[in-house]
Amino acid sequence: MANINWRTINIDALDPESSYNFDLSTLTPAVQPVSTADVQTLTGQIRQLLRGGDASGALQGALENAPYGADEQGKAAHLSVVTECLNQIRQAEMTPLLQRMYKAEGGSELCDTLMKYLYKGMSQGTDTPTRNHAGAKSMTPQATGGFSQAGGRNFGGTEGGGQAMSVFLSWHEKLVEMVGPGSIVRVMSDRRTV
Amino acid sequence: MAAPEVHHLFHAPIADHSFSSDRSTLAVARDNNVELYKRSGNAFRLQDELRGHDKTITGVDIAPRSGRIVTSSQDRNAYVWEPSKNGEWKPTLVLLRINRAATCVRWCPSENKFAVGSGARIIAVCYFEEENDWWVSKHLKKPLRSTVTSVAWHPNSVLLAAGSTDGHARVFSSFIKGTDERPEPSAWGERLPFNTVCGEYLNPTAGWVHDVAFSPSGDALAFCAHDSSVTIVYPSAPEQPPQAVISVSTQLLPFTSLLWSSETELVCAGYDCGVYRFSGSSDGWQLTGTLEKDTSQSRPGMEQREESALNMFRSMDLKGRSGAGVDDTKLKTVHQNSINTLRAYDESGGQVAKISTGGVDGRVVVWNL
C-alpha cells in the first residue's frame, strides 16, 4: 500500500462522470460502416476507369466514395487506389482538373477529401512499404479517438519514397493554391478519417 | 468608410475585452489582472487594475446598465467587481464549484445572471442570492462532454447557447425560479425548466466550436468551429428538427469569434487576423468580404517585389529575405496576430454600426461596418 505512487493513478478512470468512461464516437458524425469487400469492389471499378485512361474520372469517383466507415485494411486499399490515380495525372493537368472539381456542386467537400488523402499518403511513405507495415500500423489511432493523419509517420523513408512524395507535394501545392489553408485545418479537425 | 481606430495597449495577448455602455471605459484581460482604460481624447489611458485572480483571466464582461464587471479565470474562480464609494473596485467571489478552469463569462441581457463556461464540462449559471448576500451558481451539465469554449445569451435572458470542444453547439434553458420571469414561447421551446436542451447541433466535420451567437431576434443561432466553417441554424418549432442548418466552409484559417451585425449579416474574426463578413438568410449564406481596407494598397507592394530578379537575389543573399526592400515582417491586416474576441461597439435598433476586436497582439481595434 505504501508503495503506490499516487501521482500515476488515473483519477479519470475512477470518476463515473469522466469522459474517460464515455464513448466519444457517439459525438462524431455518423458514418456508414463499409465492409472491406465493398471497398475492394469499388477499388476494382476505379482501377477499370483508370485502365480506360479516364484518370480524372477515376479520381473523382474515388473521392466521392471515400470509405469513412471502413476498417484499416479497407482504408489502406482505397488510399492505394487514390494514390494510383494521382500518379497517373500529369502535372500540367492538375490545376485544370482541380479547378473543375472545385467549381462543381459539392466540390469543396471533394477537395477536402483529396487533402485528407494527400496527408494520409505523405504520412505513409511510399506505396509499397505501406502494405508491408500495414500490420505494424494496426495499432489503429481510431481506437484512441485521435487523428489517424497525425499518427504513424514513417520517418525511415525508403529509396522510392522521394518519387511518391514529390507527387503528393505537387498536388498539395496546387490544391492549397485553390482551397487555402482552410482545407488543411479541416483535415486536422475532421473526425471522418480516410 | 472611416479607417479603423487602432489602440495598441501593450505587448501581451488580450484574452477578452469589454467596453462600458458609454464606451469611455475599456476593460482588458491581461495575464492575471484586468486593466481598466479610460478614454482621453483619441487614446485610452490605464486607469485602474483589478487584481485578485492568481491565474490567467479568460473572460471579462461589463454589464451595460449596472456597470458591474464579472471576470473568470483559469484559477477556477469568478469575481463580480462593483465600484465602491471611494472609487475602488470591490470584488465578490462567486461560488462556481468547478474543478477545472473557467473559460468564458457573459452577463445575460437582464443583468441579474451570468454564465461561466468551464473545462469541467459544466456551465455555471450564477445569480445573486439576497438572503445570503452572495453569488451562487446552478450547473448545466448534461449533455456536455467536453470543455465549454463559449457562452452566448438569447435576448430573453433564459436561453443560453454554448459551444464546446466536443464539436457541438447547444442551446439550454437556464431558467431560475424567483430570478427569471417565464419567457415567451419561441421556436426553441415552450416550457423551459432549468437544463432543458433545446437544440444540439454539429457541423459536418465535428470540429470543436470556438464561438456561438444568437441573432438579434434570437430566432437563429450561428457558431464557428475549428474546421474554418460558420454554421447557421434556424429552428422550426420545439422538439422538431431545425428548419435549416447552413454550413459555410471557408478557405481561411478558423474563426474564433463571431457576431450578428443584423438579422442577415455576420461578422467573424479569428486566426486569419482579419475581420470577415458573411451575409445570407435561411436560404443560404456566403462570405461577402473583409473589413480590411488595404488590399488595394498591398498590390503595389507585390509589383514592387517582383520588380527585378537581380534585386530579389541580392536581397535574398544579403538580407536573407525574398522581398527587395519590402518590409515583410508585418502582416497586411490591422491586427498583427490572431483576434480573440469580437464585440458590438455601437448598435441601434438591432443594427450594429461599429464593432471592436481584441487580439493576441495587444491591440483593440474599433471598426466601422
Count of distinct strands of chain B: 28
Q: Could you give me the name of the CATH homologous superfamily of chain B?
A: YVTN repeat-like/Quinoprotein amine dehydrogenase
Kindly report the average pLDDT value of chain A: 81
- Write the element-wise H/E pattern of chain B from the N-terminal end onward: EEEEEEEEEEEEEEEEEEEEEEEEEHHEEE
> Largest sheet of chain B, if any?
4 strands, antiparallel
| Order of helix and strand elements from N to C terminus of chain A | HHHHHHHH
CATH class category label of chain B:
Mainly Beta
CATH topology of chain B: Methylamine Dehydrogenase, Chain H
Proportion in helices of chain B: under 10%
Radius of gyration of chain A: 19 Å
Shape of chain B: globular
Q: Give the oligomer, counting copies of the same chain as homo and different chains as hetero.
A: heterodimer
Which class best fits the helix and strand makeup of chain B? mainly beta
Protein name (chain A): Actin-related protein 2/3 complex subunit 5
Region (Disordered) (chain A): 128-156
GO biological process, one term (chain A): Arp2/3 complex-mediated actin nucleation
Pfam families (chain A): P16-Arc
Describe the structure.
The complex is a heterodimer of chains A (194) and B (369). Chain A has helices spanning 11-14, 36-51, 55-64, 72-88, 91-103, 107-124, 127-132, 161-189. Chain A is mainly α and 194 residues long. Chain B has one domain (12-289): 7 Propeller (Methylamine Dehydrogenase, Chain H). Chain B is globular, with a radius of gyration of 22 Å. The model of chain B is unreliable at 296-305 (pLDDT under 50). Chains A and B meet through helix 6 and helix 8 of A and loops of B. Chain A: Its main location: cytoplasm. Chain A: Residues 128-156 are annotated as: Disordered.
